[in-house]
Structure formats: C-alpha cells, structure tokens
Amino acid sequence: MTRISVKVDGTAYEDEVEPRLLLVHYLRDRLGLTGTPVGCDTTNCGACMVDLDGKSVKSCSVLAVQADGGEVTTIQGLASADGEWHPLQRAFHEQHALQCGFCTPGMIMAARDLLRENPDPTPEEVREGLEGNLCRCTGYMNIVRAVLAAAAEERRHQAPEPGAVAEHAEPSTAGSGAPV
Amino acid sequence: MIPASFEYARPRTVEEAVGQLALAGEEAKVLAGGQSLLPILRMRLAFPELLVDVGRIPGLRGVRTDGDTLVIGALTSHHDVVHDPLVRRHAGLLAAATATVADPAVRHRGTIGGSLAHADPAGDVPAAVLALDAELVVQGPDGRRSVPAREFFTDYLQTALRPDELLVEVRVPKADAWGFHYEKFQLSAQAWAVVGVAALVRRDDGRIVESRVGLSNMGPTPVRATACEEALAGADAAPDAVASAADSAAEGTRPASDLSASAEYREHLARVLTRRAVLAAADLT
Ligand SMILES: Cc1cc2nc3c(=O)[nH]c(=O)nc-3n(C[C@H](O)[C@H](O)[C@H](O)COP(=O)(O)OP(=O)(O)OC[C@H]3O[C@@H](n4cnc5c(N)ncnc54)[C@H](O)[C@@H]3O)c2cc1C
Ligand code: FES
Ligand code: FES
C-alpha cells in the first residue's frame, strides 16, 4: 500500500491505496464520485476524462499513486458552489448534445481543456480537440455546436468588448447573458 | 480490466532509479507517462513485479539548446514538444509528427522518451527522430552513453536500452535549413499510422541537395528510405523528379500484413506518402 494525498473537486483526501489502483477506480469506488464513467479497456473512448493539475487526462490510464500531491477536477466539480451549471453543461443541455449521456462527462472535460487553450475555436478545431472522445449516439454534430455555443458565451462573459460579439444583438454586461 | 499487482517505487534521481532497476533486473519496468504501459497492464499483457515511476525526477523534462544541438529531456510530454518554441524553430518535423500522436489527453501524459523506449514501429515520434539523425542519451549503472537513432531500434518493440538503463535525453541536430513534412495515413482519428512518412529536404534554388526520409510501420522497426534518399540527392526540385525518386521508397522494407493493410498496400502507401511528404518538405506543393 502507498499513501497518497489528493485534492478532488476542492476537497482534500488522504488514503492508503494499492499501487495498481487506477485513478478512475479511486474516484468512483473509494470517493463515490461516479460521475466519471469507464467506457473501454484500451484508453480510446475518453469517457473517463478528468482534469489533473490543469490538463485533461484519461483517468483509466493514470494510477492513483501518480496523482499523489495533485489536484483533480471531475465533471462533478464544474458547477459553481450555488449549483449553477458550467456554461458547457448548459450548452450540452440546450443544444441536445447527448442521448445516453455516457460520453458526456468526458466530452465536457475535453471541451473545457480545449477552450482554455483556444477560447475561440473553429468547428474543425473543436473536432480535433475532441479527437480522444468517442460518442456512440449523437453523431457529434450537436456536441460541436454545444462547444461553440459555450465558447461564445464564455467569451462574452470574460471580455465584454462592445461590437466584438456579432452573434448577440444586445450589449452584454457581466451576468446578464445567462440563457433561460 | 484491473492490472495485476506490482510494487511501486518513485525515485528522486536518475541514479536512484537506475539502482532500483539494476536490483530488480527483468522484473522491473520504467513508468513514464504510462500511456503505453498502463493500457498493456490493464489488458494483462505484461506482469512486472516493480514499476519504477520516473515521472517526478527533476531535470528530465524540458527543452534547451547546446550549440547546434537541441536537447529534449526524455520526460518532456508530447504536448510540450508540440508547443515548445525551440522545437518548432529547430526541429519542426518533430513537432509536426508529435502533433499527430493519439489525442490531446494522451499527449498531455505521454512522453518523448516513452515513445522511443516503447519503440512501436507504428509510432510517429520514432520515424521523425530517425529522420532527424538524433542521438539518444541513456544512463545506466556505469554512467551515460549515446546511441545514434539508427542503432537504437533493434527489433519489434525492442531497443538498445538495457533493463537497468534509463533514456534521459534526446539530442537533435538543429535542422533550421531543412524543409520538413510529416505525412500520416490513418483509418480513423486518434488511430496509429497505417504508414507514416517523416521527410526533411534541403534544397538550393533548383535542386534538392539532400533529403532524409523516415518511415513508420514499414517493418518491425522504424526505417529510413535509403534508396529514395539516394535518388533525391542532386535531383531537380520538380514534381516529376520527386515522384520518380519516391517510387523507390519501399525498397528494402519489410512491412507486415494485418487488419489495417496488406504488405503490398503498405508498400504502395509508402511510395505515395513519400511523394507527398517530400513535395511538401521541398516547398513544391
Ligand atoms: C489511445 C492511444 C493512441 C495512441 N496513438 C498513438 C499514435 O498515433 N502515435 C504514436 O506514436 N503513439 C501513439 N500512442 C502511444 C503514445 O505515444 C505513448 O505516449 C507513448 O508510446 C509512451 O509514452 P509514455 O511516456 O506514456 O511511456 P510509458 O507508457 O510510461 O512507457 C512505455 C514504455 O517505455 C518504457 N520507458 C518509458 N520511459 C522510459 C525511459 N525514460 N527510459 C527507459 N524506458 C522508458 C517503459 O518501461 C515502457 O516499456 C497512443 C496511445 C494511446 C493510449
Ligand atoms: S475508459 Fe478511459 S479512455 Fe475509455
Ligand atoms: S450520448 Fe451516448 S455515447 Fe455519447
């Protein structure tokens, strides 16, 4: 057994774990954070994606001991403290970007990572950013749409530049743009 | 699946890591980014007794220059290689090939050293490193030695690394004067190359002075398309001359037949992709 300390979605944990324990199983089975699913055995599907120290990773292919001292954010840590959804969560809901929902946590974590590096991606860049995430249901069209919509909303909130947001007619002020 | 049990060590220095590897012999495996090793352990294709996690050894990550050489630490992630300004300036071919590896999340964890030590002939990084004539610096109980990329890949998933040696850095001669292109043929996004071609071309106005062409997945190891390189030396920098040189790209290769392609089809791909890669590297497209 190896002792690890990790911060997950803002809470600090200390645990004894077997070295072979995968990070995704630590999250699901030890911490009860079952929002992060396992979809494959080959590191291909991306369903298990979480953020480790600021970068998206496939948590089925990271050992819990490798996350020792690190900070993990899962899909369950995205909503704000008062329960308000992350713009990506809202956009996936509004744009019908999911059917069964199994790929959704990973899609959102990958998209969040993409938008951090590239806040204004083209549809092609969204597809490349989500290259490591497989969806069996939707055909991806609405997923791409949702990511673009969330990107536009985040840009509107972060840097309100008058005249720079062609797709929104009304002038945007912080907090006023949340869709109903 | 859940991997079989193993012991875990997290050395703080290269010397400590090498000592642990020497003690455990064939039973130990180095763990870097884990993006090849952990899938293998999950599928229970390997049963090491000890994983030596080198991921936190300071000094093995990052890129610097040393005169005319670019020095890349073995633990530098694919993501960092792709975005590093020094790599982009002096070894653009490596950044271009690495950008096609897997997907962003795998590139965040996977390392250049892991790709080379794993030595999958379908990998994109080995062919580029081979074309760049890099030197691989490895460290064992008796200190460091340098292995030319051409001698590093010995057979399918086999390298010149001994069980108690660690790959510590990749030394790439600066290739500022060379045009470059990596051409990868894959059946789906995120997939390995069916065939990949890493091309470097140096030309003066009307002629190709010199070229270096590395091939992915055209045999048990990454290989150089030597006959094609010879045919290109001194050739006209023109599409016809490049096409006729590229016809020899598969000479001397031993590609496998598998579910993605027959050996014959791989030979065909090598010729077509080499033509495209060299044309792009020579700025003839
Ligand atoms: C879904 C998926 C798709 C992929 N697609 C591609 C692709 O298209 N192209 C491609 O090139 N690669 C691809 N890869 C592989 C990827 O490039 C891996 O990151 C890389 O092969 C291994 O690097 P790593 O640091 O993760 O090594 P690890 O998995 O930690 O180690 C791999 C092997 O190298 C040894 N090793 C690692 N570092 C050292 C060192 N410094 N010294 C000595 N031995 C060492 C380990 O013992 C192990 O045997 C893919 C992987 C996945 C999961
Ligand atoms: S469960 Fe991790 S990539 Fe599929
Ligand atoms: S919504 Fe079912 S897998 Fe994507």
UniProtKB/TrEMBL annotation, chain A:
Pathway: Alkaloid degradation; nicotine degradation. Residues 154-180 are annotated as: Disordered. Residues 2-78 form the 2Fe-2S ferredoxin-type domain. This is Carbon-monoxide dehydrogenase small subunit. GO terms for molecular function: 2 iron, 2 sulfur cluster binding; metal ion binding; oxidoreductase activity. Transmembrane segments: none annotated. It comes from the Bacteria.
From TrEMBL, chain B:
GO terms for molecular function: FAD binding; oxidoreductase activity. Keywords: FAD, Flavoprotein, Oxidoreductase. The keyword Glycosyltransferase does not apply. SMART domains: CO_deh_flav_C. It comes from the Bacteria. Residues 1-177 form the FAD-binding PCMH-type domain. This is Carbon-monoxide dehydrogenase medium subunit.
